[in-house]
Amino acid sequence: MLYVVITFLFLAIVLYFLLGGADFGAGIIELFTSEKNRSRTRKTSYQAIGPIWEANHMWLIIAVVIMFVAFPTIYSTMCTYLHIPILIMLLGITARGTAFAFRNYDAIKGENTQKIYNKVFVNSSFITPLFLGIIAGSVISRKIDLHATDFSSAYIFSWLNWFSVTVGLFTVALSGYLAAIYLIGEADNEKDVRRFIVKARMMNIAAVIFGGMVFLAAELEHIGMAHWIFNNPVSLTAVIAASLSLIASWILINKGKRKIIRIGAGFQVTMILLAVGYMHFPYMVMIKGGQNLSIFAYHATEKTIQVLGLALLLGSLVILPSLFYLYYSFQKKSEIV
C-alpha cells in the first residue's frame, strides 16, 4: 500500500504543475503583455481557466495531506526549515485567487480597484511559481542544515541560494510556456494565435536559459545535478524525450495543430519532472552533511499507510471522474459559445 500512496503523491505533484502551473502561467503571460493587448489576453485566459481555476489547487491539497499523514518527519522538516518560502507561496496563492475573483465578480467595477486587482493577480502569478520552484530546489540542494546554530543559516540560506532561485525562475518560465501553449488552442482569431505563439517562443527561450543557469548554479555549489541526470539512464532518457517532444511541438505549431500541442507540452514538462525526480528517488529531502530523508525509511506506521492508501483509492473513484467531467463540460461549452 505504500507504493499506492507514493504513486498518488507524485501524481498529485505532476498534475499540480501541469494544471496549476499553466494556471499561474496565464497571469505570467498577462504580466509580459503590452497594455493594449492585455484585455484580449485576459479574455482568452478566462475562457481557458475561469470555470476551473479553483479545482487546480486540489492537487496541491492532496500532496500536502499525503505528506502530512504518510511522511510526517519529511513534512515537518520541510515546514520548519522552509517555512518562509512556503508561507510566501501560500500568500501568493491566496492573493492571486482573491484578485481573480474580485476583478471578475466585483459588484462595483471601479477603474482604480480593477487596476489593483490586476496588479495583485499578475504579480502573485509570478511570485507563487517562483517560490514553488525555490522550495523544490531547496529540498535537493543540501542547504538545509539540521545543526544550524543561528536563524539565517537555519531558515534563510536553506532556500536563499543561487541554485534554488534559478530553479524558481525555471519554474516560472515553464509555467508561462505551458500557459502560452494552452492559450494558442483557446484563441478565437489568427492575430491572437500569432501573439500566443510569440509568447510561447519567448517562454521557451527563457526556460532554456534558466535551465542552463540551473546546471551552472548546481556546478558552482557542488550539487552534482549534471552527474545525477547524465549518469542515470532513466533521467537521461527523460531528458532526451523532453527535447524531442519540444522539437515535435514546434513542428506541430507551424503546421497549425493547435489542440494536439497541449499533449506535447504536457509530456515535455512531465519528462523534465521525471528526470529531476527519479535522479534522487526515493529521497524527498537531501540534508547538508549527507543525510537523506527517504520515503521508504521515514513513513508513518503500516496501519496509517493502509488506511490512507485505501482512502485515496476510494476517493479517486469519485473525484477523478467528476473532475474530468468538469473539464470536459466547460471545454464543450467554450466550443459551443
UniProtKB/TrEMBL annotation:
<protein>
    <submittedName>
        <fullName>Cytochrome D ubiquinol oxidase subunit II</fullName>
    </submittedName>
</protein>
<feature type="transmembrane region" description="Helical">
    <location>
        <begin position="160"/>
        <end position="184"/>
    </location>
</feature>
<keyword id="KW-0472">Membrane</keyword>
<dbReference type="GO" id="GO:0009055">
    <property type="term" value="F:electron transfer activity"/>
</dbReference>
<feature type="transmembrane region" description="Helical">
    <location>
        <begin position="120"/>
        <end position="140"/>
    </location>
</feature>
<feature type="transmembrane region" description="Helical">
    <location>
        <begin position="205"/>
        <end position="230"/>
    </location>
</feature>
<feature type="transmembrane region" description="Helical">
    <location>
        <begin position="305"/>
        <end position="328"/>
    </location>
</feature>
<feature type="transmembrane region" description="Helical">
    <location>
        <begin position="236"/>
        <end position="253"/>
    </location>
</feature>
<feature type="transmembrane region" description="Helical">
    <location>
        <begin position="265"/>
        <end position="285"/>
    </location>
</feature>
<dbReference type="GO" id="GO:0070069">
    <property type="term" value="C:cytochrome complex"/>
</dbReference>
<dbReference type="GO" id="GO:0019646">
    <property type="term" value="P:aerobic electron transport chain"/>
</dbReference>
<comment type="similarity">
    <text>Belongs to the cytochrome ubiquinol oxidase subunit 2 family.</text>
</comment>
<keyword id="KW-1003">Cell membrane</keyword>
<keyword id="KW-1133">Transmembrane helix</keyword>
<dbReference type="GO" id="GO:0016682">
    <property type="term" value="F:oxidoreductase activity, acting on diphenols and related substances as donors, oxygen as acceptor"/>
</dbReference>
<feature type="transmembrane region" description="Helical">
    <location>
        <begin position="53"/>
        <end position="75"/>
    </location>
</feature>
<dbReference type="GO" id="GO:0005886">
    <property type="term" value="C:plasma membrane"/>
</dbReference>
<feature type="transmembrane region" description="Helical">
    <location>
        <begin position="81"/>
        <end position="99"/>
    </location>
</feature>
<dbReference type="Pfam" id="PF02322">
    <property type="entry name" value="Cyt_bd_oxida_II"/>
</dbReference>
<dbReference type="InterPro" id="IPR003317">
    <property type="entry name" value="Cyt-d_oxidase_su2"/>
</dbReference>
<feature type="transmembrane region" description="Helical">
    <location>
        <begin position="6"/>
        <end position="32"/>
    </location>
</feature>
<keyword id="KW-0812">Transmembrane</keyword>
